[in-house]
Every structure is written in C-alpha cells, then in structure tokens.
Amino acid sequence: MRLFQNIQLIPRPSLLGCVRTQTGKLILPWRDYKPFFAPMLQNRRIALILLCAATLQTVLISAGLRGWQCPIHSTLGIPCPGCGLSTAVALLIKGDWQSAIHTHAFAPVFLFAFLLMGIVSIFPENLHRKAVFQIAVIEKHTPFAAYILFGIIIYWIVRLLV
Fold this sequence. Notes:
The chain has helices at residues 37-42, 44-62, 71-76, 85-94, 97-103, 107-121, 125-141, 144-161; strands at residues 19-20, 26-27. The protein has a two-stranded antiparallel sheet with strand order 1-2. It is mostly helical and 162 residues long.
C-alpha cells in the first residue's frame, strides 16, 4: 500500500530564478526532496498508532515507571541516537526546558512533530487533506528531514565521544 499516492505537487507559478540549459530544459530554483512526515500524516491510522505509542512511553516515563527499553542499548551497550528522547520530552511537558535540552537536544523538534501529528490527525477530512498537502509541499522543497537526521547523527556521535 502506497501511503503518498493521492498527493500531487504543483510547481510554483513564478519562473523567477529558473535557468534554461542548452537543450532547452528548464531547471527550477529548488530541488525535489522526498517527503517523510507527510506520508505518515496522510494515513491517519499510522499517525494515531505512532502518537499513541509515543504518548504511552512519555506517560510511563513521567510517572517514574520503566517504559520500553532501547533494544540497541540493551543489545550493544551503546546508546542509540534517540536514547533519552522520551525522558527529555517528558521534562519538556513538565516545563523543565533546561534539563530536557541537556537530556536530548532534539526533544523540542520531536515534541513539535508529535503535537502536529496529533492536531492534523483529528482534523476533518477536508482540512486534513489540505494540511497534509501543505506539509508535503514544504517537505518537497526543503531538506528539513535530511537536516534533522544529519543533526541527530552528529549529535549522537558527539554524545558518544564526550
């Protein structure tokens, strides 16, 4: 089942900044990036399952109970790039920003993503479709997902070395 099958992106109407090659091909001033977040949002069931799992993990951590343990840390003995993220999000929700950022610097990004996921998932169908489309357009023309992934990997390497 293809999650992103019903969204078609329309190029910008302005051709400012476009360049024509010798063969006449038009090169647009942006690149096309593969959307990552919008396909998850398009399928409400997947979005709600991810949201419920993240919420349950955060509630367990907030209550002082053991949530799901990291399989990479349990198996290899080294923390994965996401280790500490649940604790950091729980601290953010409690309002302890300094401890949250100290625990995992990407906690605000993930909290924002899950809040957006929750809000968009409960929209009526027409608003849901429009929101997913707008997010897909933003993702298609900006490398946000790549920057976040690259940042998490660099952050993880620094955490391992320090």
